[in-house]
Design goal:
The protein has 12 helices and 16 strands. It is α+β, with helices and mostly antiparallel strands. The chain folds into 2 domains: about 150 residues, no CATH class; about 210 residues, Serine Threonine Protein Phosphatase 5, Tetratricopeptide repeat, CATH 1.25.40.10. The longest helix has 22 residues.
Length: about 375
């Protein structure tokens, strides 16, 4: 069984900035003679003699001799704000509800040039606060360093604020991938599989191969892939998620299935021309061994409960979603997708400890997560 999952974009959001932005900053500190802060001094200052400066390369390297420290700081702050604003992905909920305004973040610049205590001081709703945190955290993870604040010739911890403006504008129908491909998100003619969706489901059901070595193991689960359908009709796997830790043999069979589909796709069109698009594709693995009938039935029931829970989350009913997810995880333990959804539901209820338990379990089982910036921000490591 396979389908284009509408909810795929919610769980597969990229938590990194465009590669181009990496050229705009440096980890090299400005050469300033500063006495180190006293190790036991944990004071957080709101006002200091010299405010922190984000170490943006264009503002701290090869600068005019006439520039003062204030000139450098102004350049760096405006450039930082420009990078942040340019990489905001407007939340769909906020777009649909016509939510606009300014989100204000609060954070502390530590004496080692890193940030901590990132918080939302003012939110406007619709997911804007979460998006502001995402883009700011991505900069920190990418290596942005700060010249710490100075008080009495010592580096000290300083609290700062960052306003981020959310304003609805006409958006471009495409974005540039890290590899430089122009990927369209809005098209005039949707991509298609030969014969339509029913044909795609039939193709996957008949062509996917369950690894013979695992037939009697009753392993079942989902391999989810993001497919790049190029304008010439060829398709390739951009990334892959093994939600149930099925293993490399199953992941390989999913890749082989995609290769078998070459030549069966019709590319999307925009303005009368074929264009590149991303397509989410799920492949379900269930053994046909007679002894696996009960396991397969439980798996199908768990998937139904998970889908119901996802809809409840979208409707703003996290308590009801958790009930469904608890039952789903009883039937299909350690399903990382279910754990992610339950963690998100707990987070919506401000139950941070419970959310982090689920988020960290996903990290432990998979080694990587598709929501790492949020996990690290909420869970502290």
């Amino acid at each position: 069984m396979c389908y284009f999952a509408a909810i795929y974009n919610n769980i597969m959001r990229t938590y990194t900035l465009l590669a181009l932005c990496a050229l705009l900053w440096t980890n090299v500190r400005a050469q300033t003679t500063v006495a180190p802060a006293t190790p036991t001094d944990t004071t957080i200052y709101d006002f200091v003699e010299e405010l922190p400066i984000p170490m943006i390369a264009r503002c701290v390297k090869n600068i005019p001799a006439s520039w003062t420290l204030d000139s450098i700081r102004t350049c760096a702050q405006y450039t930082l704000l420009s990078i942040l604003s340019g990489n905001i992905q407007y939340p769909e909920t906020a777009r649909q509800q016509d939510i606009q305004g300014t989100v204000v973040l609060s954070y502390v610049v530590e004496t080692n040039g890193k940030i901590s205590n990132l918080k939302i001081m003012r939110d406007i709703g619709g997911g804007c606060g979460t998006e502001a945190v995402r883009v700011f955290t991505a900069l920190d993870e990418a290596g942005l360093s700060w010249k710490p604040g100075i008080q009495d010739k010592k580096a000290v911890r300083v609290r700062q604020t960052m306003p981020l403006r959310f304003k609805l504008e006409e958006t471009k129908p495409y974005y540039l991938s890290v590899k430089g491909d122009t990927i369209y998100t809005s098209v005039a003619v949707e991509p298609s599989f030969r014969g339509g969706m029913d044909s795609l489901r039939s193709f996957v059901a008949n062509q996917v191969r369950y690894p013979k070595a695992y037939r009697d193991s009753c392993k079942n689960g989902i391999i989810e892939m993001n497919l790049l359908l190029r304008n010439n009709g060829t398709v390739e796997v951009d990334n892959q998620l093994d939600f149930n830790r099925l293993g490399l043999d199953f992941e390989w069979e999913a890749l082989q299935l995609v290769q078998k589909s070459q030549g069966l796709w019709t590319p999307a069109q925009y303005d009368g021309k074929a264009v590149h698009v991303m397509i989410p594709l799920r492949v379900f693995f269930k053994s046909n061994a007679p002894r696996c009938k009960t396991a397969n039935t439980q798996f199908d029931r768990a998937l139904t409960l998970g889908s119901d829970a996802a809809l409840l989350l979208d409707e703003g009913k996290p308590e009801e979603a958790i009930v469904k997810l608890n039952e789903a995880l009883t039937l299909n333990p350690n399903n990382t997708e279910f754990l992610y959804y339950r963690g998100t539901a707990y987070l919506n209820l401000n139950k941070r400890t419970e959310a982090c338990t689920d988020y960290n379990l996903v990290k432990k089982m998979l080694g990587v997560t598709w929501f790492e910036s949020v996990r690290k921000l909420m869970c502290g490591y």
